[in-house]
Structures are given as structure tokens and as C-alpha cells.
Amino acid sequence: MDTTARSVIDADSHVLEPADLWTSRVPSKYAESVPHVAVEPTSGHRHWRVGDAWLWPVGFWAQAGWKDYPPLQPWEYEDAERGSYDPKARLAKLDEYGIEAQVLYPNLIGFQAPRFEALGPELALLCTAAYNDYLLEEWAAADRKRFVPIAMLPFWDLEASVKEMQRCVELGHKGILFANKFERVDLPNFCDPYWDPVYAAAQEMDIPVNFHIGFTLDSAHKPDASVLASRRDNLAEARKAKSLESASLLMGQCDTLGKLLTSGLCRRFPRLKLVSVETGFGQVPFYLEALDWHWKAHGNPVDDLLPSEYFTRQCYGTLWFERTTLALLEQYPDNFMFSTDYPHPTSLSPGPASPAELPKDHIEHGYAGLDPTLVDKVLSRNAKAVYGL
């Protein structure tokens, strides 16, 4: 397959936030409360700190190209590939990978958003807006055609969320990052009509609502130095456990889809585009067939659309490393988008401690023999339609 002439859109990548993102954009009186970087006394490395809570080392999510297998992940920015945190270096990485454009998601504010809420209404909103401005003004500004910014929402305030959506879309953001585990922070389920103002605004603005696989971690996965030390002291067991945990986490996206497709959300908002990021693909056709079958088998009304038909009409997923199931893509040709998940551990980022090959090589080897029109949709056209590129 000739990949040189193909347009490839990466529908899921992440920005490693710089140490001064918030301290340089939020009034100095909040310097000790906003997310900032300091040396964590137990590890001796620079970690993120939000209020009184210590979080990950600054390089933690930048596994791309790293020399060791997880859970030995980078400590410092200097340990990470520069493309993780530098937009110009990321553009060079896109060229190396054979990627035309890339959708951008956060790390810290995405996976630990409730820490921001705990800062209080005013400061939490300032921090959210600061991230959205940074993503647009510094990352996307490096190349507006190749970087696709997705805005974070202050979900703890519905009115503020809608206002921030409107502000960000006017500035150039191409969608919003939402969450699928709001019950973890004592808010209604993401399908509850409570959230309809956000969904209604997204439908009106014709932007996608993106549900990433991560939102907030439970107490067993606290991102502090003691947990990291425990994993490093028991590498063999930690690697076995992380292998199972990572694969199982991906399968859990079907639970998100099931709730979404049977809740009435799609019926209430028939033009809303809903993206479940990091679904993978292969398990989804079976899950949708099983959902349809049991929907009818348990006497649910069939005068409206079946769950799989709602999915076909307005839902999307992303896939990256899989090969053996790709022949099934013809069942859902308009609903899946290629991604790398750069620079995370489960990403198409070659390195000494990764089974990944270059994305352009993965495409050449894995997509050979598929219908060219289908391949173009998965690699590019579907993402361009979803994000209005």
C-alpha cells in the first residue's frame, strides 16, 4: 500500500502540559494552589502538585520512545521525547509518522479534572480557561491545519461549561472533552438529562462530544510517589498486572457505549456527534450485535432505532494497534477513526520498549488488502467529517 499519498488524521493524541502552563496564566496570588511543578520529597523528582495533592512526575505520560517497559516511565521532561511537550517537535514527529493532522487531548487536566474542581469555582474556571487558551495559542498556533484542539470543560458548573464551549469554539477549538464516569465525583451519569444543556449546545454548534477513556482514578491507582515506588520494587508483578489492567480498561469502553445507546441520549439529540475515544474496534461489532439481540429479547420497544442503528447514525470510536479484526470495518465504515495515542504507553510509538512500528508502516502492513475507499474513511475522511476539517 502506498502511504505517501494518503491523508492520515490521528484522532487521539495527548499534550504533556508544560510546568508553567498555569503559573504563567493565572494571577500570582494563586501560585501555590494552581497546578504547578515542585520536587516531591519521596521520589526526589519533579511532580505535579494541585493544592495540597501530589500527582504524577512531570514526564509520567510520555512513554513514546522510552527505554524501559512500564511501570518504569519517564520522570522528567528531559527523559521524554521532545514531541511530547513541544509543538514544533511534534510537527516533526508527525512528518516522521506519516500523519497529516492530529487531534489534541490533555493529560493532567483530563485525567485529574476533579482536582481542579476542588480549587473552588473561580480558580477552577480560571485554570480550565488557561489550559484551553494554551492549547490554542501555543500548540495549535504552530500549525492551525495540522493541530486540532479539543477544549476542556468546567463540568462542575453547567452554565460555565456552556459559556466556555461557546468561547472556545469561537476561538477555533473543534470539539469538547467530556467524561463518562461522573458518578465518581457524585454527579449524575453522563447520559442523565441533567447534562442536556451541554449536549444541546454541542448539537447546535455542530461539534463532537468526546468521551476519553480516562477521567479520574480511584484510590487503588493514586498517582503518588508511594504507588510508583511499589510498582518499581515489584516490576515482574506490576508488569503482569498492568498488562491485564490496560487491556481490560479498553474493553470497558463498551460499557460506555451501551449506556449511551440505551439511555435515550441519541434520541433526544439526533444530530449530536458522540466520540468514544480509545474504544478499539474488534469487540464493538459483537457488542452491538449482542446489544440489539438482548434489546429485542427483553421486550424493549423496536418502533424506534436499535442501539446499533443509533451508533451507525451518530457515534464514533478510535482504533490504533489492532490488525486481525480490520476486515470487519466494512460493517461500520463511517464510524471509526485511526489514532496513535501518542505519547502514551499504549501508542503507535516505536521505541526500545514497545512492540509498535511507525504508524505509516502499521498502515501499510495492517490495511493492505482492504477496500481503498474504506481505508480512506478510517484513516482520514471520517475524522475530517467529525471535526469539520
Architecture overview:
The chain is built from 14 helices and twelve strands. The mean pLDDT is 91. Helix content is 39%, strand content 12%. With 389 residues, the chain is an alpha/beta fold. It has helices at residues 87-97, 108-111, 113-117, 121-139, 158-171, 196-205, 225-233, 235-251, 253-262, 265-268, 283-297, 307-314, 359-366, 372-387, and strands at 9-14, 36-39, 46-50, 53-57, 101-105, 147-149, 151-152, 176-178, 209-211, 274-276, 315-319, 336-338. It starts with 8 loop residues before the first strand and ends with a helix. The radius of gyration is 20 Å and the shape is globular. 45% of the residues are buried.
What keywords describe this structure?
single chain, 389 residues, alpha/beta, TIM Barrel, 3-stranded parallel beta sheet, 39% helix, 12% strand
> The biggest beta sheet, please?
6 strands, parallel
In helices, the fraction of residues equals 25-40%
Q: Report the principal-axis shape.
A: globular
What structural class should be given to the helix and strand makeup?
A: alpha/beta
Provide the spatial order of strands within the biggest beta sheet: 7-8-9-10-11-12
Tell me the count of domains: 1
The N- and C-terminal alpha carbons lie at a distance of: 25 Å
User: What's the overall average pLDDT, rounded?
Assistant: 91
Compact summary:
By secondary structure, this protein is of the alpha/beta class. Helices cover 39% and strands 12% of the residues.
Topology readout:
Blueprint lengths: L8 E6 L21 E4 L6 E5 L2 E5 L29 H11 L3 E5 L2 H4 L1 H5 L3 H19 L7 E3 L1 E2 L5 H14 L4 E3 L17 H10 L3 E3 L13 H9 L1 H17 L1 H10 L2 H4 L5 E3 L6 H15 L9 H8 E5 L16 E3 L20 H8 L5 H16 L2
Parallel strand pairs: 1-5, 5-6, 7-8, 8-9, 9-10, 10-11, 11-12
Antiparallel strand pairs: 2-3, 3-4
Helix pairs in contact: 4-5, 5-6, 9-12
